[in-house]
Design a protein that fits this description.
The protein is about 75% helix and about 0% strand. By secondary structure, the protein is mainly α. It has one domain. The longest helix has 23 residues. Pfam families: CBU_0592 (PF26604).
Length: about 80
C-alpha cells in the first residue's frame, strides 16, 4: 500500500508540474478544461499522498485546490467561462 501511495504522489506532482509548464509556455490556457482537469487530478493524488502521511496542511490545501478546479470546470461547462485551448 505504501508503494502505491508514493506512486500516486509522484504522479500527482508530475501532473501539476506538466500543467504549469503547458500554461507557462502558452500551450494551454489557465481557463482551459484540460488545465483544470490536470490540476484536479494532481490535487486528488496529493490528497491521497498527504493524507496517508498525515500532512494535514497539504491535505487541506489540495482539497481547496481541487475544489477551485471543479468549480472552474463547472463554470466552463455552464458557459460562464469560454473554453480555450
Amino acid at each position: 500500500m505504501t508503494l502505491a501511495v508514493e506512486v500516486i504522489g509522484w504522479a500527482a506532482a508530475l501532473l501539476i508540474l506538466a500543467s504549469y509548464l503547458l500554461v507557462s509556455t502558452g500551450k494551454l490556457s489557465g481557463q482551459s478544461a484540460t488545465f483544470q482537469w490536470m490540476n484536479v487530478g494532481g490535487a486528488a493524488g496529493f490528497i491521497v499522498n498527504s493524507g496517508w502521511h498525515a500532512a494535514w496542511p497539504s491535505t487541506t490545501l489540495n482539497i481547496a485546490w481541487a475544489a477551485i478546479g471543479l468549480v472552474t470546470l463547472w463554470r466552463i461547462a455552464r458557459g460562464r467561462i469560454a473554453p480555450t485551448r
